Amino acid sequence: MKILVALDDSVRTAQAALELARLEGAELTVLFVLDATWNVYLGHDFLSGSNARGGFLEWVRDEEVAEESRVEEAFRALAGDTRFTWKSAAGRVTDEILKEAARGYDLLVVSNPFRRGLEIVREAPAALLKSAACSVYFVRRDPTGAERR
User: Fold this and answer.
1) 106 pLDDT band (50/70/90 cuts)?
2) Most exposed residue of 12, 57, 86, 145, measured as fewest CB within 10 angstroms of its CB?
3) What pLDDT is recorded for position 59?
4) Which parts of 21-75 are beta strand (E)?
């Protein structure tokens, strides 16, 4: 069995993916997607000619890279001796998850709601469920937010 977990900041989702991989003796792949769609989301306005927009986009990129480092460090600590492959991609988050999920995985594990980049304001779980090439396992987030890294 091949499991793909798309990570955001949910500890519950990371724990669920690790537990499933251990129970099934599955091959586990961890995917973190850097959201590269901020440029499109912001559009072009009067700030486009100034340094404000460019400075903001640079700040967002740096924050995305820092978030990946934080999430990877936390996941490695949770994983202990459980083997996994870490993958990173950049683009529209759901598109990148679906592309990876189409590479022969049996199960996609993802948070609901999914909080990664601009997917906070999009319907990522619905898009993933509708289009995934494998089964999808949703992990409900703690509504209090206490489980976040």
Assistant:
1) very high
2) 145
3) 75
4) 27-35
pLDDT tens for 7-50 read 998 999 999 999 999 999 999 999 999 988 755 555 555 555 66
Asked whether residue 145 is assigned to any structural domain, the reply reads no
* Cα angle for residues 122, 142, 100 (degrees, 5° grid): 45
Torsion of CA 95, 44, 115, 143, to 10 degrees: -140
Asked if the structure places residue 146 within a domain, the reply is no
Sign of CA dihedral 105, 138, 10, 20: negative
What is the value of pTM for the model shown? 0.84
Q: What is the CATH number of the domain that holds 107?
A: 3.40.50.620
3-state secondary structure of 73: helix
147, part of any domain: no
DSSP state of 8: S
- Overall number of domains in the chain: 1
